[in-house]
Design goal:
The complex is a heterodimer of chains A (about 190) and B (about 400).
Chain A lengths: L1 E9 L4 H13 L4 E6 L9 E9 L11 E7 L3 H4 L7 E11 L12 E2 L3 E6 L1 H7 L3 E2 L2 E2 L2 H12 L4 H12 L1 H17 L1 E2 L4
Parallel strand pairs in A: 1-4, 4-5, 5-6, 5-7
Antiparallel strand pairs in A: 1-3, 2-3, 7-10, 8-9
Chain B lengths: L2 E6 H11 L4 E4 L7 H12 L5 E4 L3 H13 L4 E5 L1 H6 L1 H9 L5 E6 L13 H4 L7 E4 L3 H15 L8 E6 L7 E6 L2 H8 L22 H33 L7 E4 L6 E6 L2 H14 L4 E6 L1 E3 L3 H8 L4 E6 L9 H10 L8 E6 L9 H16 L7 E3 L4
Parallel strand pairs in B: 2-3, 2-4, 4-5, 5-7, 6-7, 10-11, 10-13, 13-14, 14-15
Antiparallel strand pairs in B: 1-8, 6-12, 9-11
Classes of the chains: A alpha/beta (about 190), B alpha/beta (about 400).
């Protein structure tokens, strides 16, 4: 089993942190993981990818990829702008979108190799409710990890919550873990047209 | 039993330096190295590491200060990349010729111009003639293990040469992977106290770097070459004893995967060797008799080990991530020169240079390249000696 995951968001939204926390979460379940940023300079606000690999065996391959088994979209605007088309979702892939409740998800905004399951959660609302806001930006990365756990079943929400708490320590860790659990509960399979 | 932590390759280096109990770190920041010395600064600040951080004004001074501390008897460490390494080049030579044990991590990055922060092996391979032992990791665990081992190798009385440990920027440097950290007490016992040939600490008058006659100078060169030969054995012993400590034994100067019954051998160094192994495993399933010899040390060059596996094969494909302009990739050049002492009937050997300036070369590329090479040789045709594998 080897799954390749792309977190697609804005520079500064915490995609890299999410990718790294995911590694920590899967280690708790005896799996192997890799997490890394898009190789290059940091670009706050620009659309950027972060990458994860999960496997039951040591991971030999390295480097970036632009087709994936799971696509996690942190910023819904990347969907409405059609930027999500840049990434190919493999057959029987999973797409998880941070989507406002009134957002209509359209298949044409994605490049699908075959069949794909779509999931949605309003992570921005969860972040605002938990007062997880930094420099005016709702912090959605930890919520999206909860959504990832629900949508893929590749890792348990407990491991995700534990990994988040270890990463951030203290009350911030607790609040982020709560956000992930809340997102886990609220994540639903989405209708796409 | 150790503890498994998810850390980047750069942090793996920092943890290794900490667990080797370095006493002095002198450093100047440069992408993609910086997070190594940032982490070490954190360790020192928090009291986890009892060391002195010397913040210098340039890489030239970084290695000069590291050298000075090592000369005075401290276990000293620094790290750099690319132009930083080029800038300290004078001290790189000076340190090895003074036979002072030092460990330096090189988070590889190409060389400008043009300005580019992405990885290849240009900066690392540029160090082949410096008298440093040159080791290179494939993943974060190996980077940790190699860095710890580097102190043991460097401080062995048969060697007393400085050691560089390479890891690609971003591909390993900024990638989080699980790393098992050994028990500190067990590691302390295994590594032992600092050893070096001589110490300048003011207790006894001693001068170094003074005028030497040509013959004396030449003898010092000859001694370094002898120490490099000795280092081959030391590296294997260290790999063996570290394997007993941690359960991880890599095979010495090279690591072989599926070499024993192979008719073709693919050779590479660094993180992309992992991608190569994955590609070759797939080719194996399809009946291609290919093995991988992964270069872990380029200096001393492991020609004896390579000959053992190359003797009798039909073809060898060498993947270099750097080039000596006007010649070929450096691993290819060293390999062919070294094989000349064993045989006049070389197998077909092809050199491919790729992945320059961070071009993303992965298991799918290696699958195509190795398959194509074997197919050509099997047809009885001669593949080109040198090719660029250039992607856009």
């Amino acid at each position: 089993m080897l799954k390749e995951i792309i977190f697609y968001g804005r520079g500064g939204q915490g995609g890299v942190t999410a990718a790294n926390i995911l590694v920590s979460a899967v280690l708790r379940e005896g799996l192997y993981g890799q997490g890394f940023p898009f190789f290059g300079a940091e670009r706050r606000g620009a659309p950027v990818m972060a990458f994860s690999r999960i496997s039951d065996k040591p991971i030999l391959r390295h480097g970036m990829f632009y087709d994936c088994d799971v696509l996690v979209v942190l910023d819904p605007k990347l969907v409405s702008l059609g930027l999500t088309k840049r990434i190919e979702v493999r057959d029987r892939g999973v797409v998880v979108v941070n989507a406002p409740d009134n957002m209509v998800l359209e298949k044409k905004a994605f490049t699908l190799k075959g069949s794909a399951k779509f999931y949605r959660v309003n992570a921005t609302r969860i972040a605002l409710e938990k007062k997880l806001v930094i420099a005016g930006w709702p912090v959605v990365n930890t919520s999206m990890l909860g959504a990832f756990a629900r949508a893929t079943g590749l890792v348990s929400i407990n491991s995700v919550a534990e990994a988040i708490k270890e990463y951030f320590h203290g009350p911030i860790g607790e609040t982020n873990a709560e956000a992930a659990v809340e997102a886990y509960k609220q994540t639903r399979e989405a209708e796409v047209c | 039993m150790g503890k498994v932590v998810p850390i980047t390759g750069n942090y793996a280096v920092a943890y290794a330096a900490k667990m080797a109990r370095v006493q002095v770190v002198a450093a100047y920041p440069i992408t993609p190295q910086t997070s190594i010395v940032e982490k070490l600064a954190e360790f020192i600040e928090s009291g986890e590491l009892d060391a002195v951080m010397i913040r210098v004004e340039s890489e030239h001074s970084a290695l000069a200060a590291t050298f000075g501390a090592a000369l005075a008897g401290a276990r000293a460490f620094t790290a750099t990349s690319s132009h930083g390494l080029l800038y300290m080049h004078e001290w790189v030579h000076w340190t090895s010729r003074a036979r002072v044990p030092v460990v330096m991590a090189i988070v590889t990055r190409t060389i400008g111009t043009p300005w580019n922060i992405w990885p290849d092996h240009s900066d690392f391979m540029d160090q082949r003639d410096t008298g440093w032992i040159l080791g290179f990791g494939m993943d974060n665990q190996e980077v940790f293990d190699l860095t710890v081992q580097a102190f043991k190798i460097s401080e062995d009385p048969r060697v007393y040469l400085p050691v560089m440990i390479g890891l690609e920027g971003f591909i390993l440097g900024h990638t989080t992977m699980p790393v098992e950290l050994p028990d500190q007490k067990e590691l302390d016992d295994w590594l032992g106290p600092r050893r070096q040939g001589y110490v300048i600490d003011g207790r006894e008058p001693l001068a170094i770097g003074n005028l030497a006659w040509p013959e004396d100078t030449e003898e010092m060169f000859m001694d370094i070459q002898k120490a490099m030969e000795e280092a081959k054995q030391v590296i294997k012993e260290v790999d063996e004893s570290y394997g007993k400590l941690t359960g991880r034994k890599y095979g010495g100067l090279i690591q072989c995967v599926g070499c024993s019954n192979a008719k073709y051998i693919a050779i590479a160094m660094g993180a992309w060797a992992g991608d190569l192994i994955e590609a070759v495993q797939k080719l194996r399933e399809e009946g291609y008799p290919v093995g991988v010899a992964r270069i872990r040390f380029v200096r001393p060059f492991p020609i004896e080990d390579l000959w053992k596996i190359i003797n009798g094969v039909k073809g060898v494909i060498v993947l270099d991530r750097a080039i000596s302009f006007g010649a070929w990739g450096q691993i290819y050049t060293d390999l062919v020169a070294g094989l000349a002492q064993y045989t006049r009937n070389l197998p077909v050997i092809s050199n491919i240079v790729a992945g320059i300036g961070g071009v993303n070369v992965t298991h799918t590329d290696f699958y195509k390249l190795v398959k194509n090479f074997v197919d050509i040789v099997e047809k009885g045709e001669q593949p080109p000696v040198f090719t660029w594998y250039h992607k856009r």
